[in-house]
């Protein structure tokens, strides 16, 4: 009898089926946690090959786990005993249409490659996060990745016009349309985006591009509390015509931890503040981007004027505007070091949570109370995308007692839910948050998700054990 | 045995079940086409009542057709022999959260009521189309309605953060979250939006609001061809920082027809042009909205400067900027009269189509060739949302021969598909376009839609005969 490995080789070629030591690197995730060993790693080169693999898997009831950049933070690609379907070879950037502002890409295209390719046309694909040098668009779509510019451009799903995917049965869904309006039946695109590869394998997409900003104005802001910050954000949005690209939260404890990790870094302000915000606005307007005689761009002058007015209102307690690209880079380096700063301490308690914008201060207050109640010496170094209501709760406990870690984690999650929030803002469910799905997801929604999963994947072979908890 | 009508009365109260003459007005659509008579019209007042009706219908295998403002253009609410579920009583605007820029509304809330309610807070819900005085948000969500501001704010689905719906089994899906990031399982919100009430009855939603513009600048533009228009649009987007709110297409034949219907109206330009575009930009920036000594706002001056530069490039052949609110209203009245102008002539051939932005000129050329081939004396008065690649093809044939009408309709549709377009841009499928689904929708996508429909509505009772063609 032909083995699965032989059958895979007959589809993609022997060179593109990895087993044993060759497959071993795929058995750990990005954070080097063991994920279990796959049967084999298959590296298809075409959508037809993906479809053939899915038909094989469906007929033989063999689990398939799609993987692109392997930068999941939620165990979304654990593949013990499964065919690991690597999209890495399908990495073409097929077409860029500058006047229509679209790009046609394959699932294995790396984000930074897409960024580079569209930059040549004065355009951006505005999906930016730390792992952009290895994350692939297929994974970003499958997890509906967020990042630092969601406040301006939306999540990954908002940047995708068309999609192609292979269903668990091997059927190809071709919705590769470059359209801004297409009301022709159920929106399968949005169903497949964010499904974490459990409903279909995304093989290609049409991306929506935006004009590249000609100039940025970047600042560090300090406020008394997050309600003031929301007021500031709304004022800045009005005063800049919606030009805010990033509005990122860093508490004092994070600034301290950053300085510990990077001793050559500088304090953001001459004084120390409890709440530090990285603000960036950007413009595509030539008249706002051309530096004046003083070397300052009109957009930077406009930002300084807006901040001056807000300062007089008393809501803003300190502000520093980057005077050049070096200072801008310094501000971003501080924020983007978060993953590295977090690794300074083990254990760490983390939650990727979101609440309505007007509930952020209440959530922060409740988090402080939870920590005070269970581990008052713990250090809360939570950073977040304040403009999206999204916190990456990160807490260094003072104790090794995992019962304490668990209670903090679960009370922070419950506080989030009680404020109308989500226990999974942008990292997805994977294997890590299935219990939270059981506890917190609306039962009617869970039942509908299960019905859809069964309808599209009757044999349960595609990325089993992810997203949906056992019934 | 209790009849369906009695059972409905026991759920919603006798006063809220209409039959016979009381139900008759519901048996015609907005364009006064007969839709078939329902068994009864039920007017629930709560989500629990909707759920009880769905359970009754599911147990008794009685079709249910949800209806809100009855402004469908696609026969989406034809209800012969069905319970017609009117959402009109569930019209509360429950909450507005100005700082978080969200509104919580029930499905029966009329669009213009939502507009008025949020205006008090300096905010807009930017979904604008002709029927806004009677269309309800439940229907707008169910059809993912478009309109005139999609180029800036997106379609209805882009303006919805959370949703509540009752599934065909009576189960309630509660996803009423006011979140900008929520990756917790499959995106049922986007699946229910645009499903035209065939997968669930939308009962409430969380809407995303935007700051109200403080000033508009509106102009009529004339160009040689639509490729030039696309270049203009891209230039204007860059030069205004993405402030374009509307970019609407009107050909010469439409201008003539408009003048025929409204003899007191004026020509848009002193000279006659083949391609006329209504452009509007808007600003929330106080510094751009304050009129100067000459009475002109900076945004209007900025637009005039931008148009001046484009004129010198030779892509723009004429332009008139509205000098006051009256002139702005006149420009909009010309465009918004389209539905009324179309009624001047019967028969009319219509297609609601979209193509990629860079294929618009080719599509217009092909449409001209199709008309020339089959009915050279026909008058093409197509208007459209050029910024979205969306044309409302409208043609007055010179012949009564329906075979000619059909061939023009079907060749325009085929040309659209061949250019990578959609046969249904923003009006939906309803009953009218099911044949086009069969002809043009990707078979893999159709199969997946059918599987999802069966999974969520195993007895096929919710809005049967809509969207999906018979297998």
UniProtKB/TrEMBL annotation, chains A, B:
Residues 34-212 form the FAD-binding PCMH-type domain. Pfam families: FAD-oxidase_C, FAD_binding_4. Keywords: FAD, Flavoprotein. The keyword NAD does not apply. The keyword ATP-binding does not apply. Belongs to the FAD-binding oxidoreductase/transferase type 4 family. This is FAD-binding oxidoreductase.
């Amino acid at each position: 009898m032909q083995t699965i490995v032989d059958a895979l080789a007959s589809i993609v070629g022997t060179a593109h089926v990895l087993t044993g030591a060759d497959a071993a690197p795929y058995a750990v995730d990005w954070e080097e946690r063991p994920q279990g060993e796959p049967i084999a790693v298959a590296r298809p080169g075409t959508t037809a090959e993906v479809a053939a693999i899915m038909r094989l898997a469906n007929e033989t009831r063999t689990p398939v786990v799609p993987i692109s950049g392997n930068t999941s933070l939620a165990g979304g690609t654990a593949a013990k005993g499964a065919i690991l379907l690597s999209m890495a070879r399908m990495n073409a950037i097929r077409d860029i249409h500058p006047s229509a502002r679209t790009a046609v890409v394959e699932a294995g295209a790396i984000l930074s490659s897409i960024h580079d390719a569209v930059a040549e046309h004065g355009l951006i694909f505005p999906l930016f996060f730390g792992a952009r040098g290895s994350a692939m668009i297929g994974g970003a779509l499958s997890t509906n990745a967020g990042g630092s510019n969601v406040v301006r451009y939306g999540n990954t799903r908002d940047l995708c016009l068309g999609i192609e995917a292979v269903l668990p049965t091997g059927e190809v869904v071709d919705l590769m349309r470059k359209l801004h309006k297409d009301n022709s039946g159920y929106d399968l695109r949005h169903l497949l985006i964010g499904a974490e590869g459990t409903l279909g394998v995304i093989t290609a997409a049409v991306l929506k591009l935006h004009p590249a900003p000609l100039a940025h104005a970047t600042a560090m802001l300090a406020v008394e509390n997050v309600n003031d910050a929301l007021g500031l954000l709304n004022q800045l949005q009005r005063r800049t015509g919606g030009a805010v690209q990033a509005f990122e939260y860093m508490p004092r404890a994070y600034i301290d931890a950053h300085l510990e990790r990077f001793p050559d870094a500088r304090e953001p302000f001459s004084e120390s503040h409890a709440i530090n915000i990285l603000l960036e606005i950007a413009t595509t307007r030539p008249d706002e981007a051309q530096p004046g005689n003083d070397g300052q761009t009109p957009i930077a002058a406009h930002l300084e004027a807006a901040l001056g007015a807000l300062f007089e209102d008393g809501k803003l307690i300190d502000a520093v505007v980057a005077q050049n690209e070096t200072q801008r880079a310094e501000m971003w380096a501080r924020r983007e070091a978060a993953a590295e700063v977090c690794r300074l301490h083990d254990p760490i308690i983390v939650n990727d949570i979101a609440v309505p914008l007007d509930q952020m201060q209440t959530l922060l207050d409740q988090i402080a109370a939870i920590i005070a109640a269970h581990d008052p010496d713990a250090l809360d170094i939570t950073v977040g995308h304040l403009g999206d209501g999204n916190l990456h709760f990160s807490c260094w406990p003072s104790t090794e007692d995992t019962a304490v870690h668990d209670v903090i984690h679960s009370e922070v999650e419950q506080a989030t839910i009680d404020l109308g929030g989500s226990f999974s803002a942008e990292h997805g469910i994977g294997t890590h948050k299935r219990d939270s799905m059981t506890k917190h997801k609306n039962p009617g929604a869970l039942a509908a998700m299960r019905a859809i999963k069964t309808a599209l994947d009757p044999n349960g072979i595609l990325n089993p054990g992810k997203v949906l908890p056992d019934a």
